[in-house]
Amino acid sequence: MSRAVTGAAAVLVVAALLLPDRVEHLRPVAFARIPVEAIAGTALLLVLGPRARRVVAVLAGVALGLVTLLNVLDMGFRSVLVRPFDPVLDWILLDDAEAFLGDSIGSAGATAVVVGAGVLVVLLLVAMALSVVRLGHVVVRHSAVAAPATLLAGTVWVACAALGVQVSGAAVAARGAADVVSGRVQQVRAGIADREAFAEESAVDAFRATPGDRLLTGLRGKDVLFVFIESYGRSAVQDPEMAPGVGAVLADGTRRLGAAGFSSRSAFLTSPTYGGGSWLAHATFASGLRIDNQQRYRDLTSSDRLTLTSAFRKAGAWRTVGIMPGVTRAWPEGRFYGLDHVYDSRNLGYEGPKFSWTPVPDQFSLAAFERLEHGRPGRGPLMAEIILTSSHNPWAPVPTMLGWDRLGDGSVYESVKEAGEDPKEVWKDPARVRTEYRRSIEYSLTSLVSYVEKYGDDDTVVVFLGDHQPVPTVTRDRLGRDVPVTIVARDPAVLDRVAGWGWQEGLKPGPDAPVWPMDAFRDRFLTAYGPAGGPR
């Protein structure tokens, strides 16, 4: 029994030392290597006294447990957000993950998962510490064998490192845990340097001193709607598995809006994020700065940077509102974005069911905007930022289009939700995930096209775009970070001002459509619609 426990401790420690940080590297060959940390740790324990050895063993075990936890988090983040976990900035995202679980498997299931994860973390740290302590006792008790074995292992490791020996592409001389620690130190240093660099970048603002009466003069009297469609990425319009369906919706939308007198131009923007972190994309689009981490977002939203939306407020010729169905509590950032009023999920008048993560179906959000703001008699020009969330992961169940006069308070959606797919079942099959993702994008696009067709007029200008690509389960790591962006207007003078952009006609950008960084949009938009804007 004692030997079995010791063997289990050795397996646990070695496995932790060799654990990769990517799911795709989680193969048997990853564990057929020699960890240098085990060699160095054994040598250290052999030379320490009993008391120091116990202290070092406990600390080393806890540290190894933390490194293991970081590797597991890296696997999750790389699988969803296509980047490693940031131990300084990313803890806030774990709260979002809990909310997502609650919407996918229910609050009780999410609570059970969170509690279970907490228990596993504690057990991992305790088990790792006890394992290292036990192995320390064993190597000291058998020092006559352990010492020469450690020397031999060290010699083999050095030789393998010098010769570059590999097994199936993996280096035999491994130093994974050391690399994790070194990488985290570099990550913190890079974060500090990035904050300094961002301060310099954000200090430059070509429009900060522009008087309000010289902002957006080319859009005076227009209702300007900036509409974000969640997870609407290049994959939706180019992936062979999804593009035919989405393309048909966009082609039909182009035809329908054309019949109503509207024209459109489309291109791509490169999002700063992937798979999630919508607020980073929103901030990038609005601020003209690349906001690709939480620290930049905090620094930006605590500044006085002129955003696209606050420019409309500064101009003094628009009422500025936000339709934010994904917001479920106080949202102080509304003040930074210059919004006179924010309608969140609590005051859109929706009494229907949630569709997984989505608190309010897109069609209802647009109908609420019409009821609360756009359709009010005697109102002045509006600038609205509208977030459509029905295409948010997990993409099941997907709402269906209803007659605009049938929406009421949203209770009608009870039967719609019951007829939809169960997200727990959908996520068992990647092909079904992609299908439901496609259907959700088609629903969001159809809702927006139908709204513009029904309620748009000569003074309507719509800029709609995606915030980021969906998770790799959908994209299969293809087609990068680009998202479609489209401008729709009935007044020809609006599109004449962006004729020099080279954007393509219609709602669907083709594979060779122009691609801009998302942070380039603010300055180009303010320039095009300023006093010096127009055809070029």
From TrEMBL:
Top-level taxonomic group: Bacteria
Cleavable signal peptide: none
Keyword set includes Kinase: no
Family matches, as SUPFAM superfamilies: Alkaline phosphatase-like
Record has Transmembrane helix as a keyword: yes
Keywords for this protein: Membrane, Transmembrane, Transmembrane helix
Classification via Gene3D superfamilies: Alkaline Phosphatase, subunit A
Chain segments annotated as transmembrane: 30-48, 55-73, 110-133, 145-165
Protein name: Sulfatase
Organism this protein belongs to: Streptomyces ficellus
Lineage start: Bacteria, Bacillati, Actinomycetota, Actinomycetes, Kitasatosporales
